Amino acid sequence: MKRRILILALAALLLVPASAFAAPGDERVAVGADLSQSQKETVYGYFGIGQGSVEELTVTIDDERAALEGVVPAEKMGTRSISSVYIRELEPGSGITVDTHNITWVTAEMYKSALTTAGVADAAVVVAAPTGVSGTAALTGVFRCYESVTGKPLDEQAKDVAGEELVFTGELAELLGSEEAVAFMKELKEALARSKDMTDDELRQLIRDTAKDANITLTEDSVERLLGLIRRLAQMDLDPEAILEQVRWYERMIRGFRQAGEKAGELVTTFNRFFDRAVEWFRNLFSGG
Hints:
Layout: H1 2-15, E1 27-32, H2 37-47, E2 56-59, H3 61-68, H4 74-77, E3 84-89, E4 96-103, H5 108-118, E5 123-133, H6 138-150, H7 156-176, H8 178-190, H9 192-195, H10 200-213, H11 220-235, H12 240-260, H13 266-287
Parallel strand pairs: 1-2, 4-5
Antiparallel strand pairs: 1-3, 3-5
Helix pairs in contact: 3-6, 5-7, 7-8, 7-11, 8-12, 8-13, 10-11, 12-13
């Protein structure tokens, strides 16, 4: 009888997908289907691994369009699948790291913010292309690699919201600079705790006030888009600790910008006050202070 139970148990294990046993150190690659062999060699060079050493997935332009239709503008995706992704699962609590090569529109900070929204955690990510591309379509590869390496599907709504967040942050960055755009989106994420009980008009005013504090001028169309984005974020019931960890990362990033002296004068003074107040408020919110 014991032998029969053991055999059944072993059979059950053999039926479990290998991805279910994913552990820190597991890796995946997703390459654009339109890359030539020489271009593949280029992106593998950016990944720092040999071609064939890691399980490889392929992403087509149709895959990207199906995943990001209605979220990412067609002109940002292009007509070919070029961007490629490498991902390695990290120890719990390690957070997300992102490195980019030939990605011209999406910054590493924007990827980190959007990936956190999508539910990605504890992963080292490299996004690369053989020549300059916007980088928006690479989200499809990141999601597919992460789901493959962890064996855990990401929420479809979360992926859509992450794509929308990425595009909107990129548009803001064109006007403001990437640091200010990312920090502004952080502030709006912090408002989630208050937004669930707000009317649409109250939330619109919160968006306008937040923008004013950051010296940002928003069009009414932008206000409406942000209203919809925050409502969808709120529906996802994000883990407060995950958002708080993202805030800690933003704090480290901005501190680095300050120390490096990349900004100066009255603008950075205003931005520092705005950022310090936002971080302190959010810490108190979740620490009970």
